[in-house]
Write a structure and sequence with these properties.
With 310 residues, the protein is an alpha/beta fold. It is 20% helix and 37% strand. It is built from 6 helices and 17 strands. It has a 9-stranded mixed sheet, sandwiched between helices. The protein has an 8-stranded mixed sheet with strand order 2-3-4-1-5-8-7-6, covered by helices on one side. A hairpin with a 5-residue loop joins β7 (104-109) and β8 (115-120).
């Protein structure tokens, strides 16, 4: 039985904190809601989550945390007991959270050493409907991670957290390369990409609609940010994509219209991405090539099996 309800936030440690903060607020369109010394919690205007990205100043670049929600504290306790009994290493036992919005949660290391948090009863942030033409993120859509052992990582999230497989991308020469996982009716809240090392592949932000997505893509381009890939429309998930590099070299995506599926009748597809229409149904994006792939690998994550200090 699945007890996780949704994706909450992704927390990043970065050496160039001031540059990153400027990018996420002035260029990307997030709002700094809570700030401490070398620590900022960034909210999306349309999201009830207290924050969708947390930036922390650190010597080493890493994913600090990927956070998911559960419906009740009892569900948090059940998940903690379940994964501890399976031999998964807990970082913290269930308890009161000290982050904005409070709540009740716990943290653990996944199979490759990323820190994951599951929480319930976090206070809802005052948010608003994004207006027509507003090209800022509505919510955090999904997070994609690179894995040196993607089959093991897929098994971990499927077995311990009941993530469901929506679709898989494969290549005739390279085999299966990406797995899209869901925790609710959205086609994916997380995906796992085969990579040379564990790292962040990208984080994706949902915009209000096609017009706002294109306006946002154009605004970031005009700001001189390096575009990696897009604009286009994927087949898996049927969502649009424009990928950019943040100042630390993390890939960030603007998207919209991610598919919502009927979980009772859905059957996963195996898509061959050597077919150009799988990567981009529109044919408007630059070709998926070695350059795009290499940028997506990112730097090796330096925080594996080391819990973040906050």
């Amino acid at each position: 039985m699945r007890l996780i309800t949704h994706l909450r936030h992704v927390d990043l440690a970065v050496p160039d904190y001031a540059k990153q903060l400027d990018f996420y607020t002035h260029t990307w369109g997030l709002r700094p809601e809570h700030t401490d010394s070398g620590l900022t919690f960034l909210a999306a205007e349309g999201s009830p989550e207290q924050y969708v990205v947390r930036l922390r100043e650190a010597a080493d670049k890493r994913i600090d945390l990927i956070a998911f929600g559960a419906a009740t504290p009892a569900d948090v306790d059940t998940l903690a007991q379940r994964i501890a009994a399976a031999g998964v290493r807990l970082v913290s036992e269930p308890g009161t959270l000290q982050t904005p919005g409070g709540g009740y949660g716990f943290r653990f290391f996944d199979n490759e050493g990323r820190t994951v948090e599951i929480s319930a009863d976090v206070a809802v942030r005052r948010h608003r409907a994004i207006e027509e033409g507003e090209s800022i993120p509505v919510r955090l859509s999904h997070v994609v991670i690179n894995s040196a052992d993607p089959e093991g990582t897929l098994a971990f999230y499927s077995q311990h957290l009941s993530f469901a497989l929506s679709d898989t991308l494969m290549h005739p020469r390279m085999g299966e390369m990406m797995w899209f996982l869901r925790v609710n009716a959205w086609h994916h809240s997380m995906a796992i990409a085969r990579g040379p090392h564990p790292s962040l592949h990208h984080a994706s932000f949902e915009l209000r609609g096609l017009d706002e997505y294109m306006r946002g893509t154009g605004r970031v381009l005009r700001a001189g940010v390096e575009k990696i890939w897009g604009p286009g429309r994927h087949l898996a998930g049927n969502n649009t994509f424009s990928y950019f590099l943040d100042p630390s070299g993390n890939t960030m995506e603007y998207t919209t219209e991610l598919e919502q599926i009927d979980e009772d009748t859905w059957h996963p597809h195996l898509y061959d991405f050597s077919n150009p229409e799988v990567s981009d149904q529109w044919g408007t994006a630059n070709a998926m090539n070695e350059f795009v792939a290499r940028r997506s690998f990112n730097d090796p994550d330096k925080g594996l099996f080391q819990a973040p200090p906050v």
